[in-house]
Write a structure and sequence with these properties.
The chain is an alpha+beta fold. It contains three helices and four strands, in the order H-E-H-E-E-E-H. Strands 2-3-1-4 form a four-stranded antiparallel beta sheet. A hairpin with a 3-residue loop joins strand 2 and strand 3. The longest helix has 17 residues.
Length: 103
């Protein structure tokens, strides 16, 4: 989880008032390269970046209804992924690191 957060693209999560940020966690054998090729994006609305075992996905809030992210649920690869928003991802990391410090 630390690496997922640390390796996020520069500026990812930095403008929550403008963008919604999601991390798409991929289960092997699905790779980020294969997933990004299948996930549709609307120009000017959606952006995706491949990471190590994840896709970093952002969408413009003002045009969120035009985002294609919701269509990913209809893809066969959806069974091999879990989507969490950026806040949940960073909160989980905090919880995990707090647990490490306590234990």
């Amino acid at each position: 989880m630390e690496q997922v957060v640390a390796r996020a693209p520069k500026g990812f999560g930095a403008q929550p008032e403008k963008y919604r940020y999601d991390v798409i966690f991929l289960n092997p054998p699905l790779t980020a390269e294969a997933a990004i090729a299948k996930v549709a994006m609307k120009a000017g609305v959606d952006q995706a970046h491949a990471g190590a075992g994840v896709l970093y996905f952002s969408r413009l809030i003002s045009k969120a209804s035009q985002s294609k992210l919701s269509r990913v649920a209809s893809l066969p690869i959806y069974k091999s992924m879990t989507i969490r928003n950026w806040r949940t991802t960073t909160t989980l990391l905090q919880m995990l690191t707090a647990g490490d410090a306590a234990g």
